[in-house]
Amino acid sequence: MPLPPPTTTVRASLNAIARHSALNAFVSVAPESHLLAKAAAAEARIAAGSPLSDLDGRLIAIKDNICTPSPLRTTCASKILGNYTSPISATVVDRLEAAGMITLGKTNMDEFGMGSHSVFSSHGAVKNPHDSDLSTGGSSGGSAAAVAAGICDLALGTDTGGSIRLPSAYCSITGFKPSYGLLSRWGVVAYANSLDTVGILSRNWRDARSLFSLLSAAPDTLDPTSIPRPNPKIRSSSTLRIGIPVDYNLHELDDRVRSAWIRTLESLSNAGHEIIPISLPNTKHALAAYYVLAPAEASSNLARYDGLRYGLRSEQDRVNGTLFAGTRGEGFGEEVKKRILLGAFSLSAGKMDNYFIQAQKIRKMVQDDFTAVFGRDEGDASQVDVLIAPTSPSPPPKIAEVADAHGTDGYVADVLTTPASLAGIPSISLPVEKGVGMQVMAQWGGEEVLWKVAEGLEEAGGIYQLETSE
């Protein structure tokens, strides 16, 4: 079915933002005149048969920690950045706009990406489009809500430990975290540099594939971690060897999620794919290691927010002549403060060996687990092509429950997503029923096999289809 003209899409999306304002999905929206001018230009190019790309004229929402130029702000959903407007735009934003895509606005999120339910935002919590009492997931909750509500077909998010995949599962859409290094992080506000990954949220996996191809076409010289897209060896077979990590079959796994996992595997088995139980024994340590490493990096990255150069400057610091104690106390939310303290503690002289260094060793063990099951070359008899497991141990919980979680209770939603993040491997969450996603993981650089699984699952009727009105 042909897409409607871009100007029609812009008007419909602006109406949808107003209609779904209670979702609190957007932090800022581009002016209507700006959007319509961009849409008219795209419409003219398409009519003339000279579109800039296959995505020319398509609307996209951008997570609020990815820098965009005026008129859009970049606040990271934090009071400390307030009305900050970035003087630069991220490489991924430049590339999508060079391809003719239209940036609709910036989406709400957990402050600086620190959260699993999009409740830790200075702009207020994001609501799930399917049930406003339920968590939308985090930290890319605004992007997920915008896509799930039909405001736009595509959105950019960031995934540090599951921040794209978890909200995608909760909102019944596709969430794709590519291999670390394949999408530029230049212009992305850092949370944890060695883990942060730009990714894509979409209403279908084909749109995610198209946008990934566009954004990963060439490495970015501005990003020292940017790597050319590889061509890994994948077995030349019409059927796949699908690994089932038995360590992901947690006792705490919700019955509905476990049943959906079984149905997914059955549909792929019926299509001729081989199902192979495998072990990733260090999975049980991944969550703890992640919550040492990510806060440690965050405590260093967030040291720059002192109100002296940009952002909030506390009146207390102005009046009393203090340097930045008041500014950071007022500017950061409670969850961010907690993670800064956790990170500073694990990096302190007396604790670094027992926490940060040990967590790095665990990370290497997790990476080795994945290397062992994917094999090192095409002829490795132990090789599996992909792994399939639930994205989250449960369907979306109630917002009231997660907002009142104590200590580290709010972190358990990430238990199944952090291993792939620690290993830097690609993972895509596909909706298999409302509120339940299955993540497909491949070796580093193995994105192509993820699309193959998505297509096979779609053909088998195993992907949940959102209605346009949802």
UniProtKB/TrEMBL annotation:
GO cellular component: glutamyl-tRNA(Gln) amidotransferase complex; mitochondrion
Name of the top EC class for this enzyme: ligase
Catalytic machinery residues: K63, S139, S163
Domain named Amidase: residues: 9-448
EC number: 6.3.5.7
Catalytic reactions of this protein: L-glutamyl-tRNA(Gln) + L-glutamine + ATP + H2O = L-glutaminyl-tRNA(Gln) + L-glutamate + ADP + phosphate + H(+)
Subcellular location: Mitochondrion
GO molecular function annotation: ATP binding; glutaminyl-tRNA synthase (glutamine-hydrolyzing) activity
Gene3D superfamilies registered for this protein in UniProt: Amidase signature (AS) domain (3.90.1300.10)
Keywords in alphabetical order: ATP-binding, Ligase, Mitochondrion, Nucleotide-binding, Protein biosynthesis
Pfam families in alphabetical order: Amidase (PF01425)
HAMAP family documented for this protein: GatA (MF_00120)
Complex formation: Subunit of the heterotrimeric GatCAB amidotransferase (AdT) complex, composed of A, B and C subunits.
Membership in a protein family: Belongs to the amidase family. GatA subfamily.
Biological role: Allows the formation of correctly charged Gln-tRNA(Gln) through the transamidation of misacylated Glu-tRNA(Gln) in the mitochondria. The reaction takes place in the presence of glutamine and ATP through an activated gamma-phospho-Glu-tRNA(Gln).
Protein name (record): Glutamyl-tRNA(Gln) amidotransferase subunit A, mitochondrial
Lineage start: Eukaryota, Fungi, Dikarya, Ascomycota, Pezizomycotina
